[in-house]
Design a protein that fits this description.
Chains A, B: It comes from Sphingobium tyrosinilyticum. Chains A, B: Pfam families: cNMP_binding, HTH_Crp_2. Chains A, B: This is Crp/Fnr family transcriptional regulator. The structure is a homodimer. By secondary structure, chain A is of the alpha+beta class. Chain A has two domains: about 10-110, Jelly Rolls; about 125-200, Winged helix-like DNA-binding domain superfamily/Winged helix DNA-binding domain (Arc Repressor Mutant, subunit A, Orthogonal Bundle). Chain A is about 35% helix and about 20% strand. Chain A has five helices and eleven strands. The first copy, chain A, has helices at about 95-120, 125-140, 155-165, 170-180, 195-200, and strands at about 10-15, 20, 30-35, 40-45, 50-55, 75, 80-85, 145, 150, 185, 190. In chain A, the strands form three sheets. Chain A has a four-stranded antiparallel β-sheet with strand order 2-6-4-5. In chain A, helix 2 (about 125-140) crosses helix 5 and helix 3 (about 155-165) crosses helix 4 (about 170-180). The longest helix of chain A is centred in the middle third of the chain and has 27 residues, at about 95-120. The first copy, chain A, starts with 9 loop residues before the first strand and ends in a 10-residue tail after the last helix. The relative contact order of chain A is 0.14. The interface of A and B includes residues 46, 111, 120 and 121 of A. Chain A binds a DNA duplex (30 and 30 nucleotides) through helix 4.
Chain lengths: ~210, ~210
Amino acid sequence: MLGQFAASETHCHFRPHQFLAREDEQPDAIYRIDEGWACRYRVLPDGRRQITGLFLPGDICEPHWALGKRPSQPIVALTNVRATNLPSSPHGVLPAESQQACWKGLADMIERQTNWLVTLGRKTAIERLAHLLLELFERMRSSGLSYGQQCAMPLTQMEIADMTGLTPVHVNRTLQTMRQRGLVELQSKWLRIPDLAALRDAAALTSNEVLA
Amino acid sequence: MLGQFAASETHCHFRPHQFLAREDEQPDAIYRIDEGWACRYRVLPDGRRQITGLFLPGDICEPHWALGKRPSQPIVALTNVRATNLPSSPHGVLPAESQQACWKGLADMIERQTNWLVTLGRKTAIERLAHLLLELFERMRSSGLSYGQQCAMPLTQMEIADMTGLTPVHVNRTLQTMRQRGLVELQSKWLRIPDLAALRDAAALTSNEVLA
DNA sequence: CGCGGTGTTGACGCCGCTCAAAGTATGTGG
DNA sequence: CCACATACTTTGAGCGGCGTCAACACCGCG
């Protein structure tokens, strides 16, 4: 990394349910997640919640802040999180390397959001869960955090429900169906995918769809 | 279509159902819509379709192409469309002014996509339609294309269904309910909103949610 | 005048939601 | 190490919003 700038890198740490950013508050800096999972979400007036983005190790948290927006949604840690905030000069200008990382993160984020629009708009419960689990695995794998066919999966069924637009109860039942069909093994916060191709099939992806 | 020049603006024209861009094909340039509506979408293997973005007059079509991505989804004209493609040098570098417009468009697009994730994940049919119609009106208004409480609305019920993740039949029934409740007047491609506040309420937006 | 796209209506079925309760981890303090 | 609280997972019964299927009406257009 580079440490030769006025504002130097600083590491920070969050516990589960702790906020990395609150709505409409100017964040101190742009975070890169080094360890742990976080998400952003929105809550409707009557309490319904939808998670709109997941941040995994290596991800830049809200790269579009680099475009000068302030957070329109809160970001909260789902597990213990270690993060680094990208150094920036007083006027919010990032060093070239970080700038590049932001653009890359931005492009990936848009791609993933678009995929999720399709899933939330048109897919069944099994397809939604297959999409989610595949995406998690692929993202973990591309960060070197997978082990063979498995990886960590710290989300609760309630959090899965809030990502997939389902209820926790239905997530539970659907996961059981998928286990019975041999599509996934999921227990005690670990995910194993016996047959990647079968799960891709169950996710009803389009041929050129890349999740990582 | 048209032979494009390195650095000068060129205008082009599309008819309904004509493609502004196809999947995975490098587009000639980045378009700005001058008149008419277009959308991008994805079709699942079994034919289900989800529209993932709408482009209205003034919008830059796929600003994230400026990040160096090629289109992952087709873009098709919904009406007659006039567009201008932004001049760019051979290496894809945009003039500063266009660059600015792209970043602005990008930030707006992310914001809207996020809002739609919430709507598709968690909202009822009425709420979805209220969100859509409000967004359309606000976007048209901010471009000076509204007239009092009304604006053009060229979408078919089938297209509305593909945006909101519903079926055309249910869109039809839900619109009737909304008409009965005095939430909207919608006929022959024109939209009138008698009571903006009531429609906002029906859309179950969060207080700080801005749609334009 | 006929034809394809669109809007409308009805009957019926199912996927996923709601409500409720019991069972099982996880963690905390004594 | 146990007692207890809290969070999470699992299970059952019943229901409802939205989808499906199938007509029919309407309209612009060649």
